[in-house]
Amino acid sequence: MSPPAKNLRIIKATRKDLPALQSLMRKSIKILQTPYLSKPQIRASTEVMGLDTQLVEDGTYFAVFLRDALAGCGGWSRRETLYGGDHSKGRDARLLDPSREPARIRAMYTHPDFIRRGVGRLILDTCEQAARDAGFKRAEMMATLAGVPLYEACGYAHIEEISDTTSDGTQIPLIRMGKPL
What is the pLDDT of residue 88? Predict the structure, then answer.
């Protein structure tokens, strides 16, 4: 595990944190996806990205603060759903079998003002350790193109490229990635 960046603090997110987390997610998508997605894809991304509040209820979603500022968020899951928010299609709350199925790394976002300060790595390290502690041997995620460099640097490998099609027909490119824990 990497040492946490100086002055970063990670806590379990609660329902009271939801408005701030959702605001951070919108800003992160709008700004950090710009080099990778077209304007229509960025607008449509909120349909396939976002927070699954089941993670908060399960106690597996985290908020990272730099001093008192919300710098990022992300989590992991022991449930079937690989990505998407409460509003996304195809959600499945089935519990995974840690002996044969991978944990899910979910909904990782960094506030644009706090990139390259160890926020994402702290979240990922925290999630991986929690998944290991729960008996998982492997983790998988559905990465945005903006997240791929971090995940590769942390040992994740490409499994498959997909495009999720939104209700208006916009295609959002995503990459399923995985790693042994």
Answer: 83
b/e per residue 9-36 (b: at least 16 CB within 10 A): ebeebeeebeeebbebbeebbeebbeee
| Domain ranges within the chain, ordered by starting residue | 8-137
Tell me which residue of 153, 77, 72, 79 sits closest to 117, measured CA to CA. Answer: 72
- Other Cβ atoms within 10 Å of 149 Cβ, number: 11
Answering whether pTM is above 0.85, one says: yes
CATH 3.40.630.30 fits 8-137, yes or no: yes
Ramachandran bin of 169, using left for φ above 0, alpha for ψ from -120 to 50, beta for the remaining angles: left
CB 10 within 8 A of CB 123: yes
pLDDT digits (tens, 9 = 90+) for 138-158: 999 999 999 999 999 999 999
* Spatial CA neighbour of 94 closest among 78, 83, 108: 78
Contact 75, 57 (CB under 8 A): no
Q: Residue range 65-82: average pLDDT?
A: 96
